[in-house]
Task: structure prediction
Amino acid sequence: MIVVGTDDVFLATKIAEEAAKKDRKITFVANDRELEASARENPVLVLIELGVFSLKTASLMKKNGATVIGFLMKGKAEPEAEKICDAVISEHEMEKKIPEIISKIR
Result:
């Protein structure tokens, strides 16, 4: 299962379309509470918009064994994000890599 936390509707749509093509289950979360609750479902991949979702919650997902990719709409990531996330990339890079990222999960 893939968990996605973003308030960017365009990017969320692109992720949903690609997940559907690859027949992957996807859950969208709107806040940290929903993100934390989704940890119980043992997601394989977590895509979160940094600056919108808490790094503390991302850390919990990582401890549960999920691959965590943080992305930024603009600016630089906090140094802590680099430690917690498996990758920190720009929104633009995320858009380009969605097919590749989703293809890698089982």
Remarks:
- Residues 2-95 form a domain with the Rossmann fold fold (CATH 3.40.50.2300).
- Residues 17 and 45 are 16 Å apart (CA to CA).
